[in-house]
């Protein structure tokens, strides 16, 4: 599957205004994201080595096997395990997980939007941490996103901020010495991500349709948010 993307930034002072504008464009109320957890994993094998999947530790985890086999999810890329539903909405500790692979985006000159190969593999049961250990991946970092989602025709709009977990070595004097979570961008700026997913990226017609939809959305939001191609290096998931 291919994902087509455009990105924009919005200062915190215009957040409410943009929510209202996006609600009007999409004809829907914003769908809140309270705290979507992202666990980042790195392969234990060095780049260029060949390894095999150890199934013993993952035998209690069910996944969509056809997707798992179709995408090797090789040892050259970071991967993420993402909590699909906020636990506070479904009950404490009850989360659904998706394993996400994101390839290096194509060179920008080929298209007027960011384009990359992606794979989402749903974990239907079992321990996701044990599953990643079985793939010979180690957990290296965690972050959460919060914000709102919209849908406009085939495009998904995500307005969000990234929060980093509390650092035990840093404390806030106003919290009685307890470590505090913090925004990745201290200014509080929001990111607007517009995306369209194309099942078969080899079909020129469907890719063109997706690109045109994003460009139409870009034109609609002109003067409100400037949607642009993402920084290819910032979106690079390869392990060096």
TrEMBL record:
Upper taxonomic lineage: Eukaryota, Fungi, Dikarya, Ascomycota, Pezizomycotina
Entry GO MF terms: transcription coregulator activity
GO cellular component: core mediator complex; mediator complex
Alphabetical list of InterPro entries matching this protein: Mediator_Med18 (IPR019095)
Subunit structure: Component of the Mediator complex.
Presence of the UniProt keyword Nucleus in the record: yes
Name used for this protein in its record: Mediator of RNA polymerase II transcription subunit 18
Domain of life: Eukaryota
Gene3D superfamilies according to UniProt: Hypothetical Protein Pfu-838710-001 (2.40.320.10)
PANTHER family attached to this UniProt entry: MEDIATOR OF RNA POLYMERASE II TRANSCRIPTION SUBUNIT 18, MEDIATOR OF RNA POLYMERASE II TRANSCRIPTION, SUBUNIT 18
Pfam families given in the database record: Med18
Protein family: Belongs to the Mediator complex subunit 18 family.
Function: Component of the Mediator complex, a coactivator involved in the regulated transcription of nearly all RNA polymerase II-dependent genes. Mediator functions as a bridge to convey information from gene-specific regulatory proteins to the basal RNA polymerase II transcription machinery. Mediator is recruited to promoters by direct interactions with regulatory proteins and serves as a scaffold for the assembly of a functional preinitiation complex with RNA polymerase II and the general transcription factors.
Biological process per Gene Ontology, one example term: regulation of transcription by RNA polymerase II
Signal peptide limits: none
Compartments (UniProt record): Nucleus
UniProt entry keywords in alphabetical sequence: Activator, Nucleus, Transcription, Transcription regulation
């Amino acid at each position: 599957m291919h994902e087509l993307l455009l990105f924009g930034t919005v200062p915190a002072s215009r957040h409410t205004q943009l929510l209202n504008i996006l609600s009007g464009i999409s004809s829907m109320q914003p769908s809140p994201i309270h705290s979507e957890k992202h666990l980042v994993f790195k392969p234990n094998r060095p780049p260029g080595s060949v390894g095999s999947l150890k199934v013993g530790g993952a035998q209690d985890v069910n996944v969509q096997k056809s997707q798992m086999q179709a995408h090797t999810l090789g040892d050259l890329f970071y991967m993420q395990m993402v909590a699909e539903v906020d636990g506070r909405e479904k009950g404490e500790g009850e989360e659904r997980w998706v394993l996400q692979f994101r390839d290096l985006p194509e060179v920008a000159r080929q298209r007027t939007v960011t384009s990359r190969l992606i794979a989402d593999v749903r974990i239907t049961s079992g321990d996701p941490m044990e599953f990643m250990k079985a793939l010979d991946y180690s957990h290296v970092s965690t972050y959460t996103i919060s914000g709102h989602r919209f849908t406009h025709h085939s495009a998904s709009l995500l307005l969000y901020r990234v929060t980093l977990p509390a650092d035990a070595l840093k404390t806030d004097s106003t919290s009685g010495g307890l470590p505090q979570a913090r925004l990745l961008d201290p200014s509080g700026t929001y990111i607007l991500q517009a995306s369209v997913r194309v099942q078969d990226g080899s079909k020129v017609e469907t890719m063109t349709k997706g690109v045109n939809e994003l460009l139409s959305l870009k034109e609609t939001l002109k003067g409100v948010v400037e949607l642009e191609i993402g920084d290819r290096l910032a979106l690079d998931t390869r392990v060096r």
